[in-house]
Design goal:
Layout: E1 2-7, H1 21-44, E2 49-52, H2 64-76, E3 81-84, H3 95-104, E4 109-111, E5 118-120, E6 123-127, E7 153-158, H4 178-181, E8 186-190, E9 196-199, E10 202-204, E11 220-226, E12 230-236, E13 241-249, H5 255-262, E14 272-283, H6 284-297, E15 303-314, H7 317-321, H8 327-340, H9 347-368
Parallel strand pairs: 1-2, 2-3, 3-4, 6-7, 7-8, 8-10, 13-14, 14-15
Antiparallel strand pairs: 1-11, 5-6, 9-10, 11-12
Helix pairs in contact: 1-2, 6-9, 8-9
Length: about 375
Amino acid sequence: MIRFLHSSDLHLGRAFGGFPEAIRGRLREARHGAIARLASAARQGGAGVVLLAGDTFDAETPSPETLRHALRAMAAEGDITWVMLPGNHDSLAATELWRRIAKDRPQNLIVVTEAQPFELAGAMILPAPCTQRRAGRDLTEAMDAPTPEGMPRIGLGHGAITDFSGEEGVAGIIPPDRAAISGLDYLALGDWHGRMQVNLNTWYPGTPEADGFKHAMTSGALLVTLDGAPRVEVVETGTFSWQTALLDLLPGEDAVARLAEELPPPAMRRDMLLRVVASGRLPLAGHTALEAEAQAIAPDFGWFEHDFTELRAETRPDDLDQIDRAGALRRAAEALMAEANDPARAAADRDISAAALSRLYALAQEVQA
């Protein structure tokens, strides 16, 4: 029986530009902490080996601190053997990076820089390190290499599965039946940041620490047991949750209550990045109440964003009375209402007027409160 942990795409050193500095620092630290969590997951699952299927680092030139901290963190897990494969973000074209890793690596780290089979823990590892960011060919052909008869064959690669939407397929990427072609008992792949089972013997584990909203699943690694057909168990390793709440609203609906249904308990919000995307139609008062609630809950989360651009505010004449019954504000509100409902105007211009009217309504409510 062979057992190991399959992970990939740690992307250590990712900057998370575009986020506020406070959450950027926490996200970077969570990625570094994934090393210890992977070691713990392997240990608890009875595995002594962690296969890192590429993109351990986010760039070919990680900072000296990022590299040093990663190698020290792996060294600290002395009972675990780490196998590090170059991916497309940290390919072999980064000669200085791999020279530094080879020079400073701890004894429990195996650095794979050649497409040559090697024995590890009773199995043969058949690696296909990325030679450059876009190799232009299927590097996993190297997994056809012969190995001693009777030993399990584990492929370790990084890249996308072939898209056969065209007659010829797409050249230069991995065929989905690579495991069968090369006689592999298991093919450990990296590159896709969401977990994916390609077939019985081929998996992507996804990143061990979520880094975006694209994949709506828990982040983790795969505990793989080879004893006949592979047995694959998902092990959660993530710290942060990235979620998108979609609200399709109708007039008469309690939008604030709908939003509350989508939210986790307050104790779970600090480690969540949440996007709320609302669409549909609401009365002006409901639209304003939802906007106010979004503003009120935003500080609960590690990061929060709301997008109400597709949410239409239905304005009735009596809504304008809540702004003012006469005078300049009333005339401005009437003008904005007319512009927002004018079919002769471009949709983008109507949206601007509607948003301005909604904001005017909210300001009027604040003053009256």
